[in-house]
C-alpha cells in the first residue's frame, strides 16, 4: 500500500502538472481538483457514501470495518458520541495486521455525531482508515477545553503511521461563540487561543482526502511533526470575518503535498510555519481570507526555518493578501527556496508581499504595541524567492511590496511574468511596487515595474 500511495500521489502530481501547465490562462483560473475524483478511487483513497461495508470497497479489500454506531454512538447530532468513537478507534487501532489491509472506522452517511475533545492515538497494530461519510459536530460551548498552557484541540490524531482519513463527510466546529468571544472581535475580552478543529501530530505517511471542514473556532486543519503527507480535494469554509481562523496550518513537517483545496477562512487560507520543508501546494482556491502565507516567523526572537516551499496553481479572490511571507523584527533562521507560481489574483488587497516588520498587537486594545517597530540587528533571512506567472487585480495601489529587514536584506527575489493592475485602472490609479532592503535577482516582464514606487529604499533591481 505504501508504494500504491506513492504511485497514486505521483499520478496526481503528474495529472495536475499536465492540467495546470497545458491550459490557457483564462482556463487556468479555476483549479481543477475535481479531476482527482477520477484518479483516487482506484487507489482506495476514496469511497462512495453507500459503498457496501463488505470486504471489498472499490476493489480494495479492507480487513475490518468498524461502524461507530456499533459502539453506541447515536448519530442524532445531540448525544455525546465521544466515548463510542474512542472505543471504535481502540478496536481498529488494535486489530490484527494479518491481511495487511487497513482497519476501517466508519462514520456512516446521513448521521451526525456530537463529539467533545477527542484524541485518537497510535501507534496502531494495523493501518487504519477513518472513513468520514457522516457529519461530526462540536458542542457550541468549548469552555474548559485544553489543559492550561496547552493548545485546545477538538479532534486530534496522534502518532498514527499510514493513516488515511477519507470520505464525503464533514466536520462542523461550530466556532461562532469562539469568534464572538475573541479579543479581536470584543476588545473587552482577554486574548485566548480557540480550539483547532482537526489536528494531525506525528502522523507519517498520512492521507487526508475529500472531507469538508466548516467553522473551526480557530485553525481548521493543523499538520504538525508529520512526514510524507497528502492532503487532497479538501473543502474548508468559515466566514471571512472569523478572527484568527486559518484554513490549513503546516508546522515542523517534511514532505506535505496539498493537491486541491477550496478554502474560505477569516485568516490565512494556508499558513506555513517554522520547521516546514519540501511543501508542495497545487490547485488552491482561496477566499475569503488572508491568502497564502509563509509565517509568521521569528516572533519573540525565535529561530525559524522554512525551505523549499512551492505553491503552483492557485486562485485567490477577495482576500487581504495573496502570496505572502511575514516575519517579525528580530528572530533568526531562514526562509529560502520559495516559489509562488501560476496564481490568479482577483480583487486582492496586496497580491505580492514580503513583510519583515510583521506585528500583531498582543491585545487589540494595546494600540501602541506595533508603533515602534525598531529595526533589530537580527532577522529571519529571506532568500531565493520566486514570484512567477502571477496576474490579476489588486485593491491597494501597492500591488507588489517587498519590505525586508535592514539587518538582512532579502536576497535573490525573482519576479517573472507578473501582471497586476488595480481594480480601478487608469493612469491615476496605476499599480505601484515598493521595496525596502530588497536585492532582486531576475525581473522579467513585470508590471508594475519592481520598486517603482518613490518610497523604495535600499533596493537593487
Ligand atoms: C502490517 O503488515 C504488513 C505486511 O504484512 C507490513 O508491511 C506492515 O508494516 C504491518 N503494519 C504494522 C503497523 O505493523
Ligand atoms: C523540494 O520539495 C519537493 C516536494 O515539493 C521535492 O520533490 C524536491 O525534491 C525538493 N527539493 C529539494 C532540493 O529538496
Automatic annotation (TrEMBL):
Q: Does Transmembrane show up as a keyword for this record? A: no
Q: Name one Pfam family in it.
A: Glyco_hydro_28
Q: What is this protein called?
A: Polygalacturonase
Gene Ontology terms, MF aspect: polygalacturonase activity
Compartmental location: Secreted, Cell wall
Which InterPro entries does the annotation name?
Glyco_hydro_28, Pectin_lyas_fold, Pectin_lyase_fold/virulence
Origin species, per record, is Panicum virgatum (Blackwell switchgrass)
User: Which GO biological process annotations does it have?
Assistant: carbohydrate metabolic process; cell wall organization
- Answer whether the UniProt record assigns the keyword Secreted to this protein: yes
Tell me where the signal peptide lies.
1-27
Alphabetized SUPFAM superfamilies for the sequence: Pectin lyase-like
Task: Tell me the keywords, alphabetical order.
Answer: Cell wall, Cell wall biogenesis/degradation, Glycosidase, Hydrolase, Secreted, Signal
Name the PANTHER family on file: PTHR31375
Q: Which residues form the active site?
A: 290
Amino acid at each position: 500500500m505504501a508504494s500504491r500511495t506513492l504511485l497514486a500521489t505521483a499520478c496526481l502530481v503528474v495529472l495536475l502538472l499536465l492540467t495546470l501547465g497545458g491550459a490557457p490562462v483564462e482556463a487556468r483560473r479555476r483549479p481543477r481538483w475535481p479531476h482527482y475524483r477520477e484518479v483516487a478511487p482506484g487507489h482506495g483513497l476514496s469511497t462512495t457514501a453507500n459503498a457496501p461495508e463488505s470486504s471489498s470497497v472499490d476493489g480494495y479489500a479492507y480487513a475490518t470495518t468498524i461502524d461507530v454506531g456499533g459502539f453506541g454512538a447515536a448519530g442524532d447530532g445531540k448525544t455525546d458520541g465521544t466515548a463510542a468513537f474512542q472505543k471504535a478507534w481502540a478496536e481498529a487501532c488494535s486489530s490484527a495486521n494479518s491481511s495487511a489491509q487497513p482497519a476501517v472506522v466508519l462514520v456512516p452517511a446521513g448521521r451526525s455525531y456530537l463529539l467533545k475533545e477527542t484524541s485518537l492515538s497510535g501507534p496502531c497494530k494495523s493501518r487504519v482508515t477513518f472513513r468520514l461519510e457522516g457529519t461530526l459536530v462540536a458542542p457550541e460551548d468549548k469552555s474548559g477545553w485544553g489543559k492550561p498552557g496547552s493548545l485546545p484541540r477538538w479532534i486530534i490524531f496522534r502518532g498514527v503511521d499510514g493513516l488515511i482519513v477519507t470520505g464525503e463527510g464533514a466536520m462542523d466546529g461550530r466556532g461562532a461563540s469562539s469568534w464572538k468571544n475573541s479579543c479581536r472581535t470584543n476588545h473587552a475580552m482577554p486574548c485566548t487561543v480557540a480550539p483547532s478543529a482537526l489536528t494531525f501530530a506525528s502522523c507519517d505517511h498520512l492521507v487526508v482526502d475529500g472531507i469538508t471542514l466548516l467553522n473551526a473556532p480557530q485553525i481548521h486543519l493543523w499538520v504538525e511533526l508529520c512526514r510524507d503527507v497528502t492532503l487532497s480535494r479538501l473543502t474548508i469554509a468559515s466566514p471571512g470575518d472569523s478572527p484568527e481562523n486559518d484554513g490549513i496550518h503546516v508546522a515542523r513537517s517534511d514532505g506535505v503535498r496539498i493537491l486541491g483545496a477550496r478554502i474560505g477562512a477569516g485568516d490565512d487560507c494556508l499558513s506555513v510555519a517554522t520547521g516546514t520543508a519540501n511543501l508542495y501546494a497545487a490547485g488552491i482556491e482561496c477566499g475569503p481570507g488572508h491568502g497564502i502565507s509563509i509565517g509568521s516567523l521569528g516572533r519573540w526572537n525565535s529561530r525559524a526555518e522554512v525551505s523549499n516551499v512551492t505553491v503552483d496553481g492557485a486562485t485567490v479572490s477577495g482576500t487581504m493578501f495573496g502570496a505572502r511571507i511575514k516575519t517579525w523584527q528580530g528572530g533568526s533562521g531562514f526562509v529560502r527556496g520559495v516559489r509562488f507560481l501560476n496564481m490568479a489574483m482577483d480583487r486582492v488587497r496586496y497580491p505580492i508581499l514580503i513583510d519583515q516588520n510583521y506585528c500583531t498587537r498582543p491585545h487589540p486594545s494595546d494600540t501602541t504595541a506595533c508603533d515602534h517597530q525598531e529595526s533589530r540587528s537580527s532577522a529571519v533571512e529571506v532568500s531565493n524567492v520566486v514570484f512567477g506567472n502571477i496576474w490579476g487585480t489588486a485593491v491597494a495601489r501597492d500591488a507588489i511590496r517587498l519590505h525586508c529587514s535592514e539587518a538582512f536584506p532579502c536576497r535573490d527575489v525573482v519576479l517573472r511574468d507578473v501582471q497586476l493592475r488595480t481594480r480601478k485602472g487608469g493612469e491615476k490609479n496605476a499599480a505601484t511596487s515598493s521595496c525596502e532592503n530588497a536585492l532582486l535577482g531576475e525581473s522579467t516582464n513585470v508590471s508594475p515595474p519592481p520598486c517603482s514606487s518613490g518610497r523604495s529604499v535600499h533596493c537593487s533591481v
